[in-house]
Design a protein that fits this description.
single chain; alpha/beta; Glutamyl-tRNA Synthetase, domain 2; Ribosomal Protein L25, Chain P; 7-stranded mixed β-sheet; 27 strands; elongated; RNA-binding
Length: about 550
RNA sequence: UGGGCUAUGGCCAAGUGGUUAAGGCAUCGGACUUUGACUCCGUGAUCCCAAGUUCAAAUCUUGGUAGCCCAGCCA
């Protein structure tokens, strides 16, 4: 799928056309403190695809300016997710690579009288900041001399002070209606080992100061971020200007992408994992990229989904059905269509010889012959789905098996149900049927029409399997309600059944259409003796 | 009268003064079918409201209304 027209693409076209920029350079700047989710995928895809269209380039830059929260374990996971999506960054960089230059630029600001060391503690600073409707007031430390500021900032760097004892603040305007401009902190003291720089630094720049500098150093032309940074842009531009950055990057904001029944906040995903409400970040129910991958989603389905939702400045909530449609469309043509019985009901073909198995050639997909064929087994003992049998045909629309009714076992023969075997509690445990040899599939038999076509697997050759079915983790998206209350108790359902013998050597993440059941992917935990499949999504159904 | 952003069918979204206002998802019909799948056909908008500018307005102006964001030494 192509990237549709959107406002950022239009801006880039104009910038290129009127010579404002000669090349498009974008960046994806994740903070290495969490696993990436499908919301990040929008940012990744947007940055890379936009640059690609204009033959530009995209860097991956880890935004690691806060060692309290960040960890190198996330660095590798994030790299892997981006690679999985099929993108290769022009460069892989770290914000911490620029700590030296960032420090020097802070000194530049001090020398210009545009930054000062402030002794206010956190609480005092909040009081001085004012409120949304009232102006703040100047810090008593605002007018320290340049030399004193220089000395103090150096001492901050040299570890003379405790965490929180002092900050470096930009001197802008405590009466600004934009809170971000009320002398924002640009450096703070944190005595913690950094995953990249170790103990070299004990002061770290804030995002608002570091980000524009990083963008400028890297020659980023279009710095894309989410809409809540809109009122940070004025500060972004201030930093670029006052630091006399030779290259001037520009920030553009776009809305966040939400999906119905899906909650994507880092805090929430972390809580799910730490409370053992899911197995891990790669749990197939998680909206993380690693979870979606394990579920069986393909990179193209994610890309097409994101591209299909478009891009605007609105925070949008897209129906999860759109994601499902995207994976169905991707898998429909390219995947093998095979038989699996998830809720087995034993069927004995009473007029078929015992100990005889018949092998039938069947194409994997009549829509894609290149997939080839395999042999399916047919014999005296088969399994069909429990839901494909009802003792009494309920209405004319019922296109499945009932007592005295004849249906086709797909790719094999017509069978007719003659007798029902029940246990002492009245549950149906077996069906006794007869088959008609002249109705064999492919024989051209047209004298009778069966009451529908159902799938089956031969009992003695099929492989025991576990099928994991998923529902949304949350029953609603009302973030005001407690998470545990909203949890869907049926988000993971396990079924035990059989797949046709052809799947005995399936490998992790191999994807199939199980005929009439849905799309599935082989789980990492699948073993030869017990195959495990995750349902990616159901087939569409107009059955009412 | 704190500041900022946004408003196009149920959900996304193109559209940049002249179009029958693209497209996708969903819905509802129908055709086809050895998957109740796929595929194919059909199906919906006085563009938040009001006034104005103009021969002509979703697009420009003014005034409303509604929603979202901002008071971390988080990003």
């Amino acid at each position: 799928m192509e990237l549709e027209s959107n406002f950022i693409k239009t801006i880039m076209e104009e910038d290129l056309k009127n010579g404002k920029v000669s090349e498009i350079v974008t960046r994806f700047p994740p903070e290495p403190n969490a696993y990436l989710h499908i919301g990040h995928a929008r940012a990744i895809i947007t940055n890379f695809e936009l640059a690609k269209i204009f033959n530009g380039k995209t860097n991956l830059r880890f935004d690691d300016t806060n060692p309290v929260k960040e960890d190198s374990s996330f660095v590798e996971a994030i790299k892997e997710d981006i690679k999985w999506l099929g993108y290769e960054p022009a460069q892989v960089l770290f914000g911490s690579d620029y700590f030296g230059q960032t420090y020097d630029l802070a000194v530049t600001l001090i020398n210009k009288g545009l930054a000062y060391v402030c002794d206010l503690n956190q609480e005092e600073m909040r009081e001085y900041r004012g409120t949304l409707t009232e102006a703040g007031k100047n810090s008593p430390y605002r007018n320290r001399s340049i030399s004193e500021n220089l000395q103090l900032f150096k001492e901050m760097r040299d570890g003379k002070f405790e965490d929180g004892e002092k900050t470096l603040r930009a001197k802008i305007d405590m009466a600004s209606p934009n809170m971000n401009m009320r002398d924002p902190v640009i450096y703070r003291i944190i005595h913690i080992e950094h995953h990249n720089t170790g103990n070299k630094w004990c002061i770290y720049p804030m995002y608002d100061f570091a980000h524009p500098i990083q963008d400028s150093i890297e020659g980023v032309t279009h710095s894309l971020c989410s809409i809540e940074y809109d009122d940070h842009r004025i500060l972004y531009d201030w930093v670029v200007e006052k630091c006399d950055m030779p290259h001037i990057p520009h920030q553009y904001e776009f809305g966040r992408l939400n999906i119905t029944n899906t909650i994507m906040s880092k805090r929430y995903l972390k809580q799910l994992v730490e409370s053992n409400l899911v197995k891990w970040y790669d749990d197939p129910r998680m909206p993380t990229l690693t979870g979606l991958r394990r579920r069986g989603y393909t990179r193209d389905s994610i890309k097409n989904f994101v591209l299909g939702t478009g891009l605007s400045r609105i925070n949008s909530t897209v129906s999860s059905e759109m994601l499902e449609t995207s994976i169905r469309n991707d898998l429909n043509y390219q995947v093998k269509r095979v038989n699996a019985v998830l809720n087995p009901l034993k069927v004995t073909i009473t007029n078929y010889p015992e100990n005889e198995i018949e092998w039938i050639d069947v194409e994997y997909s009549k829509d894609n012959e290149a997939l080839g064929t395999r042999k399916i087994a047919f014999g005296r003992n088969v399994y069909i789905e429990k839901e494909d049998f009802l003792e009494l045909k309920p209405n004319k629309k019922w296109k499945r098996l009932s007592l005295g009714i004849e249906v086709r076992l797909m790719h094999a023969y017509f069978i007719k149900c003659n007798e029902i075997v029940k246990d002492s509690e009245g549950n149906i445990v077996e069906l006794l049927c007869t088959y008609d040899p002249i109705t064999k599939s492919g024989s051209g038999f047209i004298d009778r029409k069966p009451n529908g076509n159902i799938h089956f697997v031969e009992a003695t050759t099929s492989r025991k399997s576990v099928f994991n079915h998923f529902e949304p983790l949350m029953l609603d998206s009302d973030s005001k309600r407690d998470m545990v209350e909203r949890l869907n108790p049926n988000s993971w359902k396990t079924l035990n059944g059989f797949v046709e013998i052809d799947l005995k050597d399936t490998y992790s993440l191999e994807r199939f259409q199980f005929i009439r059941n849905g799309y599935y992917a082989t789980d990492y935990d699948s073993k030869k003796e017990l195959l495990v499949f995750n349902r990616i999504c159901e087939l569409r159904s107009s059955f009412k």
